[in-house]
Amino acid sequence: MGRLQTGYARPVTNRQEAQENAVKTARVGTRLGTARPMTQGGRYIRLGTASLQQMGDQFIMVDRLDMKKMAAKPVVSRVLCDYLIYVEHNPRKALQLAAEATQASNYSDWWWKERLGKAYFMLGLYREAEKQFESSIKMQEMIKTQLQLAKIYLRLDQPTTAIELYKRNSERYPHEISYLIGIARVYDQLNQPEKALPYYKNTLIKDNCNIEAVASLGAQHFYQDQPETALQFYKRLLQLGLYTAEIWNNIGLCCFYSGQYDLFYSCFERALSVADEQQRAEIWYNLSHIFINLGDSGTAYQCLKISLCYDPHHGEAYNNLAVVQSKRKEFDKAKLNFQKAIESNEFIYEPIYNLSVLHFNQQDYSQCYSLVQKTLKLFPDHSDSLELNEKVLQVLQQI
Amino acid sequence: MNQEGQVQQVQESLILKKPQRIINRYKHNQLLYNYFVIRDFKSAQELIEKLTQEHGDIHEYANQIQGYIFKMTGQLSKSTETFKKFLSFNEQDQEVLKTIAKNLQLDGRFKISLDVAQKALNLKKNDWEVFYTIGNCYYAQKDFDKALINYKRAFELSINETTYNRLGKFYLSLEKYDEALAVYKTALNSQPQNNELKALLGVLLLRMGQTQEAKKYLESVTATDTKSLLGLGSIMQDQESYDEALVYYRKLIAIHPTSAQVWNNIAMCYYGKQEILPAIISLKRAIYYDPFESTIHFNMGLVHLYEKQYMSAFHYFQTAITLNPDDSQSYMYLGIALNKLNDFQNACRSFERALELDKEKDYLIYLNYCIILLQRGDESSQYAQQIFRYFCDQYKEQEQHYDNRCKKEVVQELKQQIYKYLKS
């Protein structure tokens, strides 16, 4: 089955792992296409309005500010704090200011505590941030603060606590959808999509234009073998005014899997016409799946080649290309492509397993053995690999 | 003071009494063996390193175990090197020669392996392992006659799991079922309790169409053996007791959740029970796991045909044909689907192609073609009559054969109806 491109990328804040991801994406290429280009990180940038950016590189000389003095001015200090957090992204200074200001207000201002928590959060001091948020909430209940607290729990790898927090609050604020979406996201990340489903549905009841919920429901129905239902959701996204390659791609896939062969071609054509290079690689990859399903391995081969032109690091495409080649009995080429697949994406086990089967069939047992061990490291319960492992050992252990 | 002096004296005298130091190379052998048999390769390797440091590179047992460890961890060329070193101690060691030959064969160096095996054979005439290795080498070089001779000799010398499996599989790959059956039966006589053998025998009998005997063997095997589960399932399916078949398949799918064949069989059980939705879902899953299998697409077409979704059926039959262009059945059903879609001309072409490809002269193709031609009316009735005559001839020949595709009464009734219609 072709992979759906997610119509929605989860908002990701500028966390430490982001840098790692950036390195990875530079190599592997992003798999996710976003339907909503603006991530939360993007919002930070947006708040630095054009008027501020025109002033040149440095708007305020932050290093020269005397935080104690500033903290005494209630209005300016608040504006400055937001500036430090959202424009300068300088949590250290913001922390100084917030700490001074909290002291100045005699530890009785919820706003400053919340900002203090935010600054701690940006610095990665989650436990301190948690304390600040909690005491801020005690003074003044704010939805935003609650959400940030939940984010901390997620960052501390305590999804159940986060879900409890969301649930508790969504009972108290039944019209706030952020909590519902939050729960659904956590369940999605925990790989329990069936639990996320009712929350997305509830979100849609309260806000029937919520793009994330529509897109997620579409994807889930698609993977539950209900392409017709998924199609309805993607049509709704079109109605909401989104016109992106991912949506047309998804609609095309839904059409194909629900047997509407006359429609899917034009969907993919549209998708290709609005796609950028990375997206094209994915779309051609999906098309190759369709042709494989139609039994036309020649065209599938061409599609995979095109996909690899756009993204030379597409491990899955290399794997599938090699599979098609081995069906044509071009074993040497297939081996090479499996090798490339393994190199370009080290987290997929399929090419390694396929290569080991190829080696086994060609009676190259030592290669086969080492490859099977690699597969089992990535996917310890893979039943076919376990069986192959036994076969190889049987051959090797005859004394 | 005095006592201490005495003790010292005694000790000295003890040391003096001790004979000159014997290098006992063998005292660790038992420990090494123990490590090896419990597959604790890490400890074994440490011990081997220690032994090589103490005694140099000439410790025989350590070398031998090292060679085996290399082999079991897939480092075949290293293993061969180790055993070759071993050979320098004693060139006439048949066991070592045998092991080297096997290693070379596993490593894909068949010619050298054959040479070494020949040497081993000169030292000892009747060793089944050598014959087996030689057979493997010839088999890999696609010299099947020589391979067969060697496999047979190995089997005659010793009936064990390796020999009967190899010889049996060899016969199966050449489609010599009777010979394979004989091999398995001789093997079963010498090992009457071997479950794996019974399963193999059962599956083979099933393939030869001797269902009752196959069932006897398969049922005697414990229910966890995958081969016997699949075999029993398909027997039940053939006898149209679908629920029982599904029980077997469910057990099987728990062990192999990604097997396209099993999903396909499950789907066809549901189809037999006229439960279309689960059938389609199972078939979809089967296609997901193996999109290159034409049978699954063919079955998908059948299910859609039954559901009167002729367009989808057409697509699936077309896919089945692109994957397996020589299948007359796919062409026949494609013709039926096309006819339902009001494309009479292409339907006829499809049937003609089916008749062209059909080697077994299947009467169903003639029957279906005849019906389609008659439905068209007068313009093709001449040709329909001709086809009907062919059908009658083929049906007479094949009437006695077992065929579970359609009931005999239905065919008879259709035959009567067409006969009447053509008369009038």
UniProtKB/TrEMBL annotation, chain A:
Keyword Ion transport: no
TPR-type repeats, residues: 281-314
GO biological process: non-motile cilium assembly
UniProt cross-references to InterPro entries, sorted A to Z: BBS8 (IPR028796), TPR_rpt (IPR019734)
PANTHER family: TETRATRICOPEPTIDE REPEAT PROTEIN 8
Protein origin, superkingdom: Eukaryota
Lineage of source species: Eukaryota, Sar, Alveolata, Ciliophora, Intramacronucleata
GO cellular component terms, semicolon-separated: BBSome; ciliary basal body; non-motile cilium
Region (Disordered): 1-25
Protein name: Tetratricopeptide repeat protein 8
Keyword Ribosomal protein: no
Annotated keywords: TPR repeat
UniProtKB/TrEMBL annotation, chain B:
GO cellular component, one term: ciliary basal body
InterPro entries: TPR_rpt (IPR019734)
Keywords on record: Repeat, TPR repeat
Pfam families the UniProt entry points to: TPR_1 (PF00515), TPR_16 (PF13432), TPR_19 (PF14559), TPR_6 (PF13174), TPR_8 (PF13181)
GO biological process per UniProt: cilium assembly; protein localization to cilium
Database matches in PROSITE patterns: TPR, TPR_REGION
Listed SMART domains: TPR (SM00028)
TPR repeats: 161-194, 226-259, 294-327, 328-361
Protein name: Tetratricopeptide repeat protein
Biological classification of the source: Eukaryota, Sar, Alveolata, Ciliophora, Intramacronucleata
